[in-house]
Design brief:
397 residues, alpha/beta, Rossmann fold, six-stranded parallel sheet, 13 strands, 16% strand, globular, lipid-A-disaccharide synthase activity
Length: 397
């Protein structure tokens, strides 16, 4: 690799960059793909290898394993059964990267997998960057020690995180949230409905039960039962459900168990189109809730998992909320229904309130759009430039 001085901007670097990356699940795949797009503006001959999903592969990424192999859910026996396989993949990947020696390794989210791998690669002399600060401000604050041992630099999505990490001696840069740049301030609902073939004069509910198998198993039956109740109050309610390819068959099977007429429209991906088109979304807690906020959409956040997993997570939780919009705005601006509280009746009641608010464009709806607009602006930055600059500094060391 070419010699560079510390702090030199990316434009002064060679145009080639051999980068290894690991991104788990659909949200990590999306963030990593956006990072690859931006990095290629500074390193025109960028070549990426590692673990990634379809959106990364569309950017020319060479996936040795698909990102869905990393998707896990909770802490209970359902996860422990897969630990040996995940550890084997991580060991094999680490050995392969230490032999091939990429210029830099970028772990995208998936901290339980990536931090251990980063620590091994860093000890072997490979520079390491972690993209997406683990939410030590929300739960598991002890993870800060693992971050300090693993990452040469952390790329942060939220503006308060670098100062928090600096208190623990960890170099970090706020790079903005790529989604805040990718999603426009005001997206046309009408155009999205036309693109999806939806009626413009009937309400739309987007069902987003998550991208992991267990999330879908726990949440989708409740979402469908809630939708059936809502159809009795809103007979013309249109239902859309964006599905990642790996989960499309599972989703179709669960819908067959609880058929609705008219049926739920399953979309091949297209989560952004679904969010742009909808009046309200019934959504699993996770990155998708932030996407919904950036589209300025009312939502009902839900989550359910094995009771043991839920108990363990509650013990480590530092915030009174679980949904990113509520955490970032420091108040429960959208409802959260978790575990036993996530009954079809309760979910339907909260969605019904939002449907009325959206139809009437009332004060609650207006306040939500205003607060989500402020959040959108606070997360916007030149992510590609900031991330490339930080990576260039790491390479210069």
């Amino acid at each position: 690799m070419a010699e560079v001085a510390a702090g030199v901007g990316p434009d002064a670097l060679h145009a080639q960059l051999r980068v290894a990356m690991v991104a788990g699940e659909a949200s990590g795949d999306l963030l990593a793909a956006l990072l690859l797009q931006g990095a290629r503006a500074h390193w025109s001959q960028l070549h990426g290898v590692g673990i990634g999903g379809p959106q990364m592969q569309a950017e020319g990424f060479e996936a040795w394993w698909p990102s869905e192999r990393l998707a896990v859910h909770g802490y209970s026996l359902e996860v422990f059964k897969r630990v040996a396989g995940l550890l084997r993949i991580r060991r094999q990947l680490g050995t392969r990267l230490l032999a091939q020696r990429p210029d830099v390794f970028i772990g995208v989210d998936a901290p339980d997998f990536n931090l251990g791998l980063e620590r091994r690669l860093r000890a072997g002399g490979i520079p390491t960057v972690h993209f997406v600060c683990p939410s030590i401000w929300a739960w598991r604050p002890e993870r800060v020690h693992a971050i300090r041992a693993a990452a040469d630099h952390v790329l942060c999505l939220f503006p308060f995180e670098p100062a928090l990490l600096a208190e623990h001696g960890i170099a970090a840069t706020f790079v903005g949230h790529p989604l805040a740049n990718a999603i426009a301030d005001d997206v046309s609902m009408g155009q999205a409905r036309t693109a999806l073939g939806l009626a413009h004069d009937a309400p739309v509910l987007a069902l987003l039960p998550g991208s992991r198998s267990k999330e879908i198993d726990y949440l989708l039956p409740r979402f469908l039962a809630a939708a059936a109740q809502l159809r009795r109050q809103w007979p013309n309610l249109q239902l859309v459900l964006p599905a990642v390819a790996a989960q499309a068959e599972r989703i179709a099977r669960l819908i067959q168990v609880q058929p609705l007429q008219p049926p739920v429209r399953i979309l091949a991906g297209q989560s952004h189109q679904a969010l742009a088109a909808c009046d309200v979304t019934l959504i699993a807690s996770g990155t998708a809730t932030l996407e919904a906020a950036l589209f300025k959409k009312p939502m009902v956040i839900s989550y359910a998992m094995h009771p043991l997993s839920a108990w363990l997570m509650r013990r480590k939780q530092l915030q009174p909320w679980v949904g990113l919009p509520n955490i970032l705005l420091r108040e429960q601006i959208v409802p959260e229904l978790l575990q036993d509280a996530a009954t079809p009746e309760a979910l339907a009641a909260e969605v019904d309130r939002w449907l009325h608010a959206a139809t009437e464009r009332d004060a609650r709806w207006q306040t939500l759009r205003c607060r989500f607009g402020d959040l959108h602006r606070s997360l916007r930055a030149d992510t590609a430039q900031a991330a490339a600059q930080a990576i260039g500094q790491v390479l210069g060391r």
